[in-house]
Amino acid sequence: MKNKINFGAIIVYYVIAVICRYAAVKTNLLSGIENPYLVILLRGVGPALGALAAIKIFSLNNPMSLKGIYKNAIVPFAVYWILPAVLIAGVYYFTIGKFPILLMFTVLVYGLLEEIGWRGFLQEQLKSLPKFTSILIIAILWFAWHLNFETTPSNMIFFGIIFFGTWGIGKVYTSTGSLLAVAGVHSLNNFFRNGLHETELTLIVVLLVIWVGFIILYNRKFKTVVNPA
User: Fold this and answer.
1) CAAX prenyl protease 2/Lysostaphin resistance protein A-like domain spans which residues (predicted)?
2) How far is CA 63 from CA 59, 67, 100, in A?
3) Domain range spanning residue 151?
4) 17 contacts: CB under 8 Å, gap ≥ 6
5) Nearby residues of 30 by Cβ (< 8 Å), 6 or more positions away
6) Confidence (pTM)
7) Half-sphere exposure of residue 144, counting CA atoms within 13 Å on the CB side?
8) Residue 90: pLDDT band by 50, 70, 90 thresholds?
9) Largest pairwise CA distance in the chain
């Protein structure tokens, strides 16, 4: 039997997420904070706060895990956080002459805060729906959460990225069950705040190939262990 969708919990989640986002990007509430890394994190904290509040208020059995299918959190942390941080920091070093390690992990934590909401909570709550319907709902809500409603070509492209990101990151979450994994994938675009060029695009493709290969190989091994012939 399919799980019944708790629309009240989803509304609470989304209202909190949007209020936090609005306060962070549409008001001067964060203007007095001098630490730019803290400002980045506060811009993305809404989905996590909304998810945790909805789970608590409605006493939901909503599973969330940093490690997912892996034996411990060290594996996804190394593959989806350490690996991209080291490679991307290397690109930054050869481009601007310094290692922005703190920025790397701030962006990754930002991705985790969002993914606690979008995948860890909302995707779990909507999993009884047909896949396309679930993806479309999450994409629309995720796009609207950014509070940029101008009907410009760049915004339409952004919605397309959000839609395919919802599909792709959702596949990673379904395959791994790991919030660390989806946070790493989520953060790929956010690493390059000054735009994407040939080197950055190549690195993104390389990381995606490594991650997809790792997921496929690990899942085959995992299934063999769980369901030996």
Assistant:
1) 99-192
2) 12, 12, 33
3) 64-226
4) 46, 47, 49, 50, 117, 145
5) 23, 24, 39, 42, 43
6) 0.90
7) 11
8) confident
9) 61
| 37 assigned to some structural domain | no
Taking each helix axis as running N to C, give the angle between helix 46-57 and helix 36-44, from 0 to 180 degrees, rounded to the nearest 10.
40
Question: Is residue 29 domain-resident?
Answer: no
Residue ranges in 28-82 assigned as alpha helix (H): 36-44, 46-57, 74-77
Give the C-alpha separation, 33 to 35, whole Å. 6
Within a domain: 213? yes
Q: How many domains does the chain have?
A: 1
Residue located via tokens 């919990």: 9
Q: What is the CA radius of gyration of the chain?
A: 18
Q: What's the average model confidence in pLDDT over 115-129?
A: 97
228 has a pLDDT exceeding 70: no
- Cα separation of 132 and 136, whole Å? 6
